[in-house]
Amino acid sequence: xxxxxxxxxxxxxxxxAHTIRIWEQRYGFLQPQRTETNIRSYxxxxxxxxxxxxxxxxxxxxxxxxxxxxxxxxxxKIFGLNHLDAEKERVVNALIKDMVSLDMLSFERQLDxxxxxxxxxxxxxxxxxxxxxxxxxxxxxxxxNPAQEHLASNIVRQKIILGIEKLPKMYNNAKLIVLFxxxxxxxxxGLLFVHFLLxxxxxxxxxxxxxxxxxxxxxxxxxxxxxxLYAHITAPTRGFKMNKFMEQLGQINKDIPMILTGQMMQExxxxxxxxxxxxxSLSETMGFLSSL
Length: 292
Known about the structure:
Layout: E1 3-4, H1 6-13, H2 17-26, E2 33-34, E3 40-43, H3 44-58, H4 63-66, H5 71-79, H6 84-101, H7 104-118, H8 120-140, H9 146-166, E4 176-182, H10 189-200, E5 204-212, H11 214-223, E6 228-232, H12 242-250, E7 258-261, E8 276-278, H13 282-291
Parallel strand pairs: 4-5, 4-6, 6-7, 7-8
Antiparallel strand pairs: 1-3, 2-3
Helix pairs in contact: 1-8, 3-5, 3-6, 6-7, 6-8, 7-8, 7-9, 8-9, 9-10
């Protein structure tokens, strides 16, 4: 059974740990267990409760009022929220609850419904990225069971690949963009989204995927005219050294522009070779892709 610290709840729900403690003291909807050293431990059911309560509270319901509602009443109120941002948060919260419950049929149904209404691109930017951001820290720090991570991420991966396959084959741009992830990197969803966006604009894409050695990139650039090398780096294995990778990448071919994006690049402060450009946010990445 999954258990979560109060900091986990803070990271997933966006509610400060101090506020959660106050709610716990004043109301009855949270009843964590405590370790021998008096550290709070919250169950998956309590995680679901805090997600529901935080959503209703954010959109106008007082905690004292929510505390008097049954679980069914809370669910009804959540589905009755009409604000567009509330609808997005409701779907993200539902994905998180389904993931921790291992209810992957419901998880997939949530995604399918949103894709049917909004399309793949909006589902990724409005729902999937927010979902990944809110649980990503827990994945990296092993506060979510690997089975939960693999089931959820593979369903997301399948939806993006299906979206790529359904795009019309336009090929109206001759530029070749090679997409890859370095050795030790297996978090593919961000790079798949870039693939989707580029293909939707008609670019010629070679998708190398995960765990690509530098020697393979060098071989490719020697035999094909490559206009851009593009890497997305989220959370590679412990042996990965960013400075070393940056140096090796920059030496492959100094005439090829190279782009680096991903969670690991958001805080990068090291040196960058002249032919490499680091994009540190989703808006920067979207702007760059639009300018190609």
